[in-house]
Amino acid sequence: MFGRGMVLGIVMAILAVGFGAAGVLLRQSEQDASREEAELVQRAGRVLQSSSKALAASLAGASAVVNPAGTVDQLTFEAFAMGAVSTTSVSVIAYVPFVRGEQRVGFEAAAGLTITEPGSNGLITAGDRRQYLPVQFVYPVTDSSRSVIGFDTASDPSRLSTSNAALDSGSLVFSAPVPAQPSGQTSVFFAQPLFPPGVLLDSAEARKAAIIGFASGLTPAPTILASVVDQLPRGAKVSIVDDGFTLAVTDSAPTEGHSTEIAQAGRLWIITVEYDNADYGTAWLMFVSTLVLACSVGLLLLHNFRQTRDLRLAATNVRELGRLSERLATANDREQMINTILGHAGLMVDADSVSVAMWSGDDHLVRSSTSALPERLIADDSSPLGAALVADSAVFLNDGAALRAAFPATARRPADGVETVVALALRRPNGEVMGAIEWSWQRARRLRAELRSTLLTTAEVCQQSLYRDEVQQNRWRSAMALSELSQRLSVSRTLDQIAEVVVGHAALASGADHVAVGFINDQGTELRVHHPSPGGGGRGRPPIGGPRSFDIAIDPGGALISILRRGQPIRFDGPDALQRFPEIQALVGDRLRRVACLPLIDADGELRGIIGFVSVSGSDASVDAEAGRLDTIADLTAQTVERSLLYQHEHELVVNLQRQTLADLPYVTGLRSAARYLPASSLLGLGGDWYDVYVLDDGRIGVVVGDVAGHGIDAIADMTEFRTTISTLLRTSASLGSLPAMSTILLNDDGGTELRFATAGLMILDQVGATMSYIRAGHPPAMVRLPSGEVVVLEQGGGAPIGIETNIVVERQQALGSGSVVLAYTDGLIERRDENIDVGLARLADALGSCLSHDPDVIADTVIASCLGGRQTNDDTAVLVIVVE
User: Smaller CB count within 10 Å for the chain: N or C?
Assistant: First the structure.
C-alpha cells in the first residue's frame, strides 16, 4: 500500500502537471488564435486579389467588343457584359464613350440621348467641357440602371480621375469609394480603356489619341465585403479601408486584429480581420480534470495504439488490394485469375483459407487455397459457400459452435477447426450470381466494420475481374464468325459495296451455303438482287469477279412485301416454293433445300431490302440452326444500308457544324491569312482541331493551332475549354514558355478524374520587330518559308501536351521578313499509319517550298493536295497559312 506522503506527492505531482498543462494550453490557445487570425487576414487578401484578377481577366477581353470601325455595337457589348456580370462580383457594367467637346452635338444626335450631370434637384443637362464620358449602354438594363444613361461620369472628379488613370496605364483601374447612381450605395467604380483593334499602344500619348471609350462599372461595397466574409469563419469581424475611408465593414467592426495591404487595380486597400477563437475552456477543463488525468492518458494511449494499428492494417490492406488488382488485371485467363485470388485474397485479412466457386454445368467448380485440385460443390445451401452461391446470402460467422450448428452437413471443414467464416456472392452487373468467395479462419475473429469493408471490397474487385474475363470470352466466341463481316460492312459506303461484302462474306458468318441481298428502289416497285457468281461464293469462298445482279418487279402492296414490312421472316422449303420467282429458282437450281428471307428494316421501320440465306441439298450447313445469327447479320446489314443512305447528309452536317465552331480570321494590316478544316473521311464524329488568330493588346498577333484528343461532342466541349483557356492566357500572360504549364493547372482545377489533353502550337508575331516567338506543346512543328524560298522546320521549343505535365517550355525565335510564309497545322495533314512521321514532314516541307505563290488560299490548297490527295483520312486536319506582306 502507498503511504500518505506518497499519495500526497502523487496528488501534488498531478496538480503540478495539471497547472502547468493548463498554463501551456492557455498560452497555446492565445497563440493559435493570433496565428489563425493572421492566416484569415491573408486569406481575405487572397480572396480580394482573386476577385480583382477575375475581373481584370474578364475585362481584358472588353476590347473584343470594338469593331474594326472603332465603334461598339450595343448587342455585342451586352453579350460581353452578361458574361462579366455572371462570373464576377460586378453588379453593373456600362459602355462609356470618350466624347470631345466638339463632338458632343453629333454624338447626342447619333446616340439619341442628352449628356447630363448632377444638379441640385437631380440630373441636369451637362455644361460645356473639353471632354465628356457619358454612359451610352448599360447592363443589366433595369429601371435603376436605365436612369443613368447619358450621365457624364467625367462630372464626378473621382470617376474622372479613375478613367484618366486607366487611360494612362492602359489597364483596369479602381476608384476611391463613390456613391452609386441613383441608389447612393457605397461602391467601387472601375474603368477599362477600349481601343480600336490593330492600333499600336506603346505610349500614353498613343493611347490618348486612340481611346474610344471605357468599359466602366460598379462593384457594391457590400458585395466586396460578402465575398470576403463568405470565405471566413462565422463571427469574424472585417473592415476594408481605402485611403482612410471605410469602404465596407461587418455589423461588428474590428477594434484590433491583424491587417494587410492589398493593391487593387490602382488602389491600396487595408483589410483588417478580428477573430477571437481562443479556447480558454480547455485550460479550465485541464485544471478540473487533473485528478483523472492519469487514467485518461492511459486510455488515450491505448486508443492511439489501437488507432495506429488499425491505420497500419488499413494501409496494408490497400497495398495488398492494389497488388491483387494488378495481378488480376494481368491474368491471361480465368484459371490464372482464380489462382491469383486463392493466393492473394487472404493476405490482407490474414485468412487461413480462401475458396472460390464458379458455375460449371449443373453444379459448381470449387477451388480452395488449401487444395491444389478442384472439387465439385452441389448447388445447395448446405455450406457457407453454397449459401452465398445458391441462396445469395452473405455469411458472417465467428462462432465455431454456431457455424457447425448452421451448416452441419459440410464435409469440407477440418475436424471442427474452423471458427470464423465469411462467404460472399460474386455477381454480374445485373445482379445475377456467377460465383462465390469464402474466407475461413481457424480462430475466432472479431468481424468489425473495417474487416467487413475490406472483405466486401476484395469481393468486388474479384467479381469485376472475373466478370470482365467472362465478357471477354463471350465476346470472343460470339464475334469470331461476324468480326470480318462487321469490319467490311463498317467501311462500306454504297449499296454496291454492301452487296459485295454481304454476298462474299455473310455465308461463312451465317452457316448458309449462299447469301444474296436485294435492295428496294425509292418507288418500292423493284428489287435489285445481288447474288454470287455461278461456281463462286459460298461459305468461306468469296465470289469470283464480284457478285452479279438482276431486277425483280415487286408489288408494294402484295402479301410478300407486307409480311416482310412487319419484320417477319419468310422461308421457302424446296424449289417448288419458288415457282412464282423464276429468276431465283433458276439461280439456286433443283438442289435448293431451304431459303430464309429476312427483311432489312431501318430505324424508322422502313423496309429497305431483303437478305436471303440459302442452303442446298448435300451440304452440312443449317440455316435453322443459325437463326439468331441470321437476325444479327440482317440487322447489321440494315444498319449499314441506312448508314450508306444517310452518310453523305451527315458528313456535310458534321463539316458545317465543325466549321461553325471555328473563328473567322481577323483582318490584320500587313498580313494575309487563310485557314482550312477537313473532317476525317472515315469518322462522322466531330473532331477537336482548332485554330485562332487574334490581335493582342500590345499590337502583336497571337496564333494558336491545336488538337484535342478524341471525337464527338465531348471533344468539341474539351476543345472549347482548351481554346478559351489558352486564348485568355495568351492575351494576359507575359511568358509564352509558361503558358502550357499555366493552362494545365487551370484545366486540372475542375477536380475531374478523366485525363484530357491537347497538343498545340503557339506563336506570337511581332510585325514591328519582324520576328516570331513560338513554342510547341506536343504539337507537330510549324514551318516558315523564307523570302529566299528556303523552308525552315521549327522543331525547337517543344514540350509535353497541355494537360499532361506542367513543364516550362523554352521560347524560341524566328525572323520573319517581308514575303515570309508561316504554315501551322494539325497531325492529320502529315500522319499516315503505314509510314514514319518524318516522311510526312518532308512531304509537307517539299510542298511548301515548291509552291511559289504568295496567296495564302493557294498555298493552303496546294499543301493539302500534296499531302492528302484524294485518300481517306482517319483524323481531322486543320491548316493555317499566314503571309507577311
Answer: N
